[in-house]
Amino acid sequence: MSRYLERGEHTARLLNVNLFGRLDQQAEGDGRRWPRVLRSLTVPIVEGQSLEPHSVVQRLSFDEDDPHSIVSSIGAARRSAREVREQISSEMWEQMNRLFLNVQRMRSMPLSDTNTYEFLQAIQQGSHLFQGITSTTMSRGEGWYFMQLGRFLERVTATVNLLDAHLRDYAGAEQLAGSPDEYLEWANLLKSCTALEAYCRVHTANILPERGASFLLLDPDFPHSVRFGVDMVRAALEALSASAPLLRSSDVHRRLGKLISALSFDLIEEIVARDVHKFLADIRTRAFEIHDAVYLSCITYPIDQALTD
Amino acid sequence: MHIDSLAPKAAGPRGYPDRGAEASASLFEDYARSVAYDEMFGDDSRPRAAYELLYRRLEELTAEELTHRQRAADQAFLDRGITFTVYGHGDGTEKIIPYDVLPRIIAGSEWDFLERGLAQRMAALNHFLKDVYGEGRIMTDGIVPRRLVFSCKHYRREMRGVQVPHDIYISISGSDLIRLPSGEFVVLEDNVRVPSGVSYMLSNRHVMRNVFPKLFQHYRIRSVDHYPKLLLQTLQELAAPRSTDPSIVLLTPGVYNSAYFEHALLARQMGIQLVEGRDLVVHNNTVYRRTTAGLRRVEVIYRRIDDDFLDPIPFRGDSVMGVPGLFNAYRSGNVILANAIGTGIADDKALYAYVPEMIRYYLSEEPLLNNVQTYLLERDDERKYVLEHLDELVVKAVDESGGYGMLVGPHSTKAEQEEFRNRIIENPRGYIAQPTLSLSCSPCFLEGSIEPRHVDLRPFVLIGSETRLVPGALTRVALKRGSLVVNSSQGGGSKDTWVVDD
Given pLDDT bands bounded at 50, 70 and 90, which one contains residue A308? Predict the structure, then answer.
């Protein structure tokens, strides 16, 4: 549930930033921007499909066949919420339902240039509200930690994908170094993770590519950084392991520990010097492993294994 | 609130003789041209090249759609807290500065020229400040009268001989430009103390993108979003080479200041601390900031407090927002102020008349941007002429701002003219006079139709190791029909300003 919601929120923010953030700076045009947005959402780019901003936004907002779309994500989040409705607070359920109905209502109106912004804002705010309600009304029990796990696995993956797509497009763009364009592109990337203001507080408005990458990957305090997300995943995993013997004996703890040590002690220069894309791919793999391990040990575990325990 | 010090703009011939712009769009039905330069329409009543696309887009829109966008924009300003408190109500009513949803567009080639002109002007003013607080060559050579400088209210004798880093006195300026009926941009006044309004340039753009995204697709609009970065860079360069990563703070008078929103926005976007005077202490001629973890050295202060209130020891003793000892720390070279102290003489309205001469004197160049013709009232013949033509001219106090202490001849009563006559005779140094000018007009969306309103232009110049401008500005609008007063304190509004590639 929280994983899908996080996905919907992320898609909305990404569309918002890219649609409105750089309207007045079309140096590179939309030619590379929208393929990059799609790549960072891991949406396959189909030959012949329009990459015109309006149709991309329409598709990523309301196409039910696209699992990455907002309507799919919010729909899936609500379906999950219904399945655990007795476990979550009624305030949470109501907010989830309101958000879902809101999306349904907005679907019936075609997105125009006046209501797109309002729609994308409403999704992000709806998700924030849900998280706030969850935080004040839900006991810190197993359900809470499952939600934390889902949310942060999704967030880590999203940040990693975003950074990966950005770095690929701007690898070796020395001609951009120090230009307003470089600044604005990095500012845009940080905004996609709500990180621009937080970055500026730490490093000032002087945005350097390595510092930007370092902030998104390694900052221990910012809630959208990979390091922060992985720390939260570990905390959730430890809490869940206490009551799940299969999970406790799983190998994911060891592999997660190695990742945490890299995120905690590696310098960004070292990561870049090795191979930043491989590093990002490894994080992605870890995230999938954890997801699978939790699924296997807590939900679909084989009966015989559970009985012998 | 007033965005800042600004005298109301001179008034021009009123009335709108011809119905301009054979407007096919109904929105333009009430669009009546005057003798003023029209930003959107040329003399043939066709849209100028830069406005062509906007015009066509407006033809597709209805008044309802525009009204909807106007409301969305107003709401966005309210939500973002870009408001000022209405005094005298006690209930904390917050209002926004009126925002017009139609952008003002400037062609790139025209802008590039303005950029060069402003850079030249600021270079000359920095030379001038160094000179008058140093050798005083320009006065010895008889270009600028010594008495005019020393009688200026903003002259700070404490600054004599103070070493200002890199000789940059003015690092942030916001001069006001107007466009004459000929289409020429001229400088109406310079603001080189603590100019404000840049947050409106940034916020107007932000809101505009959200309410009018489609318009942006057809234009190549130059971005202004990197202004905070350039400002930070400028402040850092002031501290070079001694410190490459100086600790910088923004000094605000506090939350009750009408520009507090701007101070907070700039501090946040630059990633520097916003401080009040009481957050800073001076010890051993060194400035420190109080933090929960103890004192932290401060190397550069972007101050948004006037000279008078900076330090109660040399300046106004009753100031509670300043930092005692700051001036000594500054004089010792232990802290850098931007702008420097004493820059107010460079925007004195009487010295303004000498800026073209300063450009020739210091740079051996012809001024690119002209001044508005200005009568200096200490000169007998000019004073005589002005006193005989008070009903036609605009008279301004040299050191006032915000539209105070001025007379707009054509809009004034006999009694007001008499009062100014006496004031001028009593204190000729205190006033200047200018012809009543017709500011250019820009289309504005007002209650269901589009009408022309007078506008000015305030671009922001940053001077560090290089001179930099972001391609954009604050455009202020006199929203009352026929009014020439663009001050926000007197019914003025603002609009987004686009510089587009030709």
Answer: low
A205-234: average pLDDT: 94
**A200 with B270: Cβ contact below 8 A:** yes
Chain A environment of B69 (Cβ under 8 Å): 114
Residues in chain B: 502
Distance CA A268, CA B154 (A): 51
Q: Which amino acid is at B438?
A: S
What pLDDT digit, counting tens, does each position of A162-192 carry? 999 999 887 766 667 777 788 888 999 999 9
For position A306, what pLDDT does the model report? 66
Residue A124, number of CB atoms within 10 A of its CB: 17
Where are the CATH 1.20.120 domain residues in chain A? 1-138
Mutate which of B70, B225, B230, B266 to disrupt the A interface (most A C-beta within 10 Å)? B225
Does A119 have pLDDT greater than 80?
Answer: yes
Q: What is the mean pLDDT of residues A276-298?
A: 89
| Residue found by looking up tokens 């303004």 in the block | B352
CATH of domain A1-138: 1.20.120
Q: Which amino acid is at B444?
A: C
Lowest mean pLDDT of A66-80, B9-23, B250-264, name the range: B9-23
Select from B196, B175, B198, B200 the least CA-distant residue to B185. Answer: B175
Average pLDDT value for residue range A204-216: 91
CB atoms within 10 A of CB B92: 7
Residue B21: pLDDT over 90: no
Question: Taking a C-beta distance cutoff of 8 angstroms, is the pair B377, B398 a contact?
Answer: no
Q: How does DSSP classify residue A295?
A: I
Q: What is the pLDDT of residues B192-244, one digit of tens each?
A: 999 999 999 999 999 999 888 888 877 889 999 999 999 999 999 999 888 88
Closest chain A residue by Cα to residue B205: A24
Q: Where do runs of H (alpha helix) occur along B274-316? A: 307-310
Domain locations in chain B?
A: 26-500
Question: Is A116 close to B213, i.e. CB distance below 8 A?
Answer: yes
Interface test with B, best of A15, A19, A23, A201 (most B CBs within 10 A): A23
pLDDT at B431 over 80: yes
Angstrom distance (rounded) from CA B101 to CA B66: 8
A61-78 burial code (b ≥16 CB/10 A, e <16): bbeeebebbbbbbbbbbb
> pTM of this prediction?
0.89
* Distance between CA atoms of residues B278 and B275, nearest Å: 8
Q: Is the ipTM of this complex over 0.90?
A: no
Chain A: residue whose CA lies nearest to B231: A205
Tell me how far apart the alpha carbons of residues A277 and A164 are, in angstroms, rounded to a whole number. 6
Q: Identify the residue among A30, A57, A204, A206 best suited for mutation to test binding to B, counting B beta carbons within 10 A and taking the highest.
A: A204
CA distances from B110 to A255, B101, B358, B501, B502 (A): 61, 23, 24, 10, 9
Distance CA A236, CA A150 (A): 9
Subunit contact B205:A116, Cβ cutoff 8 A: no
Determine how many CB atoms are found less than 10 A away from the CB of residue B410.
15
Which runs of consecutive H residues, i.e. helices, occur in chain A? Answer: 2-20, 30-40, 53-62, 70-83, 90-107, 115-137, 142-170, 180-192, 196-203, 209-218, 226-241, 245-248, 252-265, 268-294, 303-308
- CB contact (8 A) between residue A23 and residue B221: yes
Say how far apart CA B223 and CA A182 lie, in whole Å: 12
pLDDT band at residue A26 using 50, 70 and 90 as cut-offs = low
Contacts of A114 in chain B (CB under 8 A): 65, 68-69, 72, 211
Sole residue written with tokens 């990563």: B245
CA distance A235 to A257: 11
